[in-house]
Amino acid sequence: MLYTVGEIAKILGISASTLRYYDKEGLLPFVERSNNGIRMFTDKDYEWLKVIECLKKSGLSIKDIKAYTNMVNQGNNSLSERLELFQARRTAIKQQIMEMQEALELLEFKCWYYSQAVKDHTDEKVQALSIDEIPEQYRNIKQKMNNIHAKPE
User: Fold this and answer.
1) Backbone angles phi, psi at 41, to 5 degrees
2) Domain for residue 42, yes or no?
3) Could you tell me if residue 37 is left (phi over 0), alpha (psi between -120 and 50 degrees) or otherwise beta?
4) What's the pLDDT at 37?
5) Pairing of strands 39-40, 32-33
6) Rounded distance, CA 3 to CA 82, Å?
7) I need a surface site. Which of 39, 63, 70, 131 has the fewest CB within 10 A?
8) What's this model's pTM, rounded to 2 decimal places?
9) Where are the beta strands (DSSP E) in 12-97?
10) pLDDT tens column, 96-151
11) Is the distance from CB of 2 to CB of 39 less than 8 angstroms?
12) Is the pLDDT assigned to residue 17 strictly greater than 60?
C-alpha cells in the first residue's frame, strides 16, 4: 500500500514537516516519488521510519542517524558496524532505565513522605520514623539517601 507524507505522518504520530526534514537530511533515501514528485511511502518505509524513531528516542542525533543510513546503503559490508550501533544504544537505554527507575523510587518515597506530612500538618513525625517504621517498599531508597558514603551503582 502507498501512503502520502500526510498519511504516514498521521500513522506515526509525527508532523509532515518532520518527515520532510528527514528527507532533506538524507534519512529517507529509499522513499519513492510519484510522477508529480510527491513522496509515496510503502509499508517497508514505515518500518524504516520506526527504526529512525527508535534511534531518535534512544538519543541518537540526526547526524548519527544519517551515518546509520549510510551504513545501510553500504549493504552487507556494514553489518558489524550496525550491530555495534544497536548494541551501544541498547546498553545506553538500559543504563537510562536503571537511572530513571532509581529516580522513580525516590519520587515514590517522597510522595509517601509528603502525604504523611500533609496528614500530620508537619514533617517532624515522619522525619523521626526509624527505618523499620517506614513502609518496606521505601526502606531501600531511604537507606540509600541516608548513606553518604555509599558508592553510586
Assistant:
1) -95, 140
2) yes
3) left
4) 86
5) antiparallel
6) 28
7) 63
8) 0.79
9) 32-33, 39-40
10) 999 999 999 999 999 999 999 999 999 999 999 999 999 999 999 999 988 876 56
11) no
12) yes
Which pLDDT score, from 0 to 100, does residue 148 have?
Answer: 74
Domain count, the chain: 2
Residue 63 phi, psi (nearest 5)? -60, -45
DSSP tally for the chain: helices H, then strands E: 7, 2
Residues 125 and 66 in one domain: no
Q: And the C-alpha cell for 123?
A: 514533617
Do 97 and 43 belong to one domain? no
What is the extent of the structural domain holding 104? 93-146
Are residues 12 and 68 located together in one domain of the fold? yes
Rounded to 5°, angle at Cα 92 from 31 and 16:
30
- 80 in a structural domain: no
Q: Do residues 11 and 46 touch, judged by C-beta distance below 8 A?
A: yes
SS (H, E, C) 109-129: HHHHHHHHHHHHCCCHHHHCC
pLDDT digits (tens, 9 = 90+) for 35-55: 888 899 999 999 999 999 999
At a CB cut-off of 8 Å and minimum separation 6, what does 25 contact? 62, 66
